[in-house]
Prior knowledge:
The protein is about 15% helix and about 20% strand. The chain is of the alpha/beta class. It has 2 domains: about 50-190, Alpha-Beta Horseshoe (Leucine-rich repeat, LRR (right-handed beta-alpha superhelix)), CATH 3.80.10.10; about 190-410, Ribonuclease Inhibitor (Leucine-rich repeat, LRR (right-handed beta-alpha superhelix), Alpha-Beta Horseshoe), CATH 3.80.10. The radius of gyration is 36 Å and the shape is elongated.
Amino acid sequence: MGSxxxxxxxxxxxxxxxxxxxxxxxxxxxxxxxxPPISPPLHIPPIPKFLDHRLREVYPIIQxxxxxxxxxxxxxxxxxxxxxxxxxxxxxxAHPPNNQSATALASIDFNGFGLVAPTLDGFINQLPDIAxxxxxxxxxxxxxxxxxxxxxxxxxxxLSDNNFSGxxxxxxxxxxxxxxxDIRYNFFTGSVPPQLFLKNLDVLFLNNNKFTLKLPENLGSxxxxxxxxxxxxxTGSIPRSIGKASSTLTEVLLLNNxxxxxxPYELGFLKELKVFDAxxxxxxxxxxxxxxxxxKLEQLNLSRNLLYxxxxxxxxxxxxxxxxxLSNNYFTKxxxxxxxxxxxxxxxxKNNCIRDLPDQRSKVECIMFFSDTRSxxxxxxxDIIPCNVTPTSNNPPARPKRISLAYTAFVRHRLL
Length: 416
């Protein structure tokens, strides 16, 4: 009997639960039926439409790099939105060499943006069509991505004035199209591999790092037009091979290093040379008169060294010379033509041992310097001039003025 009662109670309970919504409808206005709550429709963002599939492929790479940036003082990344990558600030598109009908991200110019990011790895090396990458005056850190060597079109790389560090990136040697390399004002250390000077570069700016290297014998093998190694810790003498770059080297900056030895006679072979600065080193010996062959020379700075002897008149006769800085050495004599350049302000010889000129070293200081025996290898070469020189006149020629590209490398924020 008890089991029958239990069965009826369970059956009644199930029935009431089933009929409950109908009983509740008695209290609904207009006998309306209560419907379950309806969820809002799921919002699916539209798929961006890209001008070319190459741009679609780099879009997530750009967005991932954007998320890495921790500081953007000029809010340039606010434009990095949507599918129109060619109009992002700092991004430029063009037709890639392997498909003139396509549109690809070809160039990036972040110069002066002040962006802060811990690395470029995973960004620049993932842009397969990039040809130019300029990022002067940012605060990018880490090392240069090794996979840059896989980029087939990259020929200009400017990472100057950032916080990169570590050894010189060896993968640079495998970048076959690279012709412009600017890594000045960073924190690179260690040696610079000599094979760098075999690479087919037009511009090589390494200044203001912490590189240490004895200048290699193959320095003159460089095809570079502009060579800036200043403000590092390079040692040794200027190699005789520098004369091999006679048809290319235009501006050479070696100042503020630890160079020593005598100036090579072969410097006079550099027929395209316009600027040469090896000031503030430990160079010694007389000036080779072969310097009188540098017909295009405009600026020569050898101040703050240990040079001595007579300033060659053939050097002062160069028609394009606008600045000849020989201060803080131990020169003992200047001729008539050089004297006129002193008067005009072209030649600076303060703090030498030239007795009949003002602002020279003391007699005691000069005697102490010359009390040590000093000599240079191949002494006969200092009196050889490997060109036909027009006889000097007592009237210095007119001097043109030109802005040096290499010297602009010392302006930290200068955009070359």
